Amino acid sequence: MKIGIIGAGNIGGNLTRRLTALGHQVAVANSRGPETLADLAAETGATPVPAGEAAAGAELVVVTVPLKNVPALPDDLLAGAADGFVLLDTNNYYPRERDGRIAAIEDEGLTESRWVERQLGHPVVKAFNGTYAQDILDAPRPAGDPERIALPVAGDDPAAKQVVRELIDALGFDTVDAGGIDDSWRQQPETPVYGLRAGVEAVTEALAAASPERPANFRG
């Protein structure tokens, strides 16, 4: 696939490494400009681009920037993406540590990814938000391996969600369908599944055990 990754931090950088290794054509952007991505480009063969060009022709666009920075992304961020492209959101809301208070999340009760979807004007699939970045490099296992980690994937569009689940499988992880974006509170920070390194059965149980009440530590 042709993939655009917007954000080259821990998750974005390691997805760039793995996805290029799998043969995907990756364009990667950050907030500081493509010249700051020279080392990552040399290491991976990815193409560093300005944020406004990362989605050009992409079949999959990954947004993995701090949540507070999503509204500052270019208005035409997704304009050049391929027809039927999938938008993958890896974000979390950290009001006390980083993002400040976002009223629509706290007062209207929007899930973090529903808020992202509204900012970007396109449906999202939520995954990797509770994954340790280093596990993307170190924890892949072949299908059927008893040590294989499962990741929750939420989204409203079954076809888009399937694209993401197949990609995660190719990366070396199982997946669990975590429902729609309005259900994605089940994988937000401080839920039982967040940061869980476990297989399908344990991840399924953790999603079911989640509470819809936002923890005090994650309220602004």
Describe the secondary structure blueprint for this structure:
Elements: E1 2-6, H1 10-21, E2 25-29, H2 38-44, E3 47-48, E4 60-63, E5 86-89, H3 95-99, H4 103-106, H5 112-120, E6 125-126, H6 133-138, E7 150-155, H7 158-171, E8 174-177, H8 200-208
Parallel strand pairs: 1-2, 1-4, 2-3, 4-5, 5-6, 7-8
Antiparallel strand pairs: 6-7
How does this model look, in words?
It is built from eight helices and eight strands; from the N terminus they run E-H-E-H-E-E-E-H-H-H-E-H-E-H-E-H. An eight-stranded mixed sheet has the order 3-2-1-4-5-6-7-8, sandwiched between helices. It has 220 residues and is an alpha/beta fold. Helix 7 (158-171) links the parallel strand 7 and strand 8 (174-177). The chain is globular. Helix content is 30%, strand content 15%. It has helices spanning 10-21, 38-44, 95-99, 103-106, 112-120, 133-138, 158-171, 200-208, and strands at residues 2-6, 25-29, 47-48, 60-63, 86-89, 125-126, 150-155, 174-177.
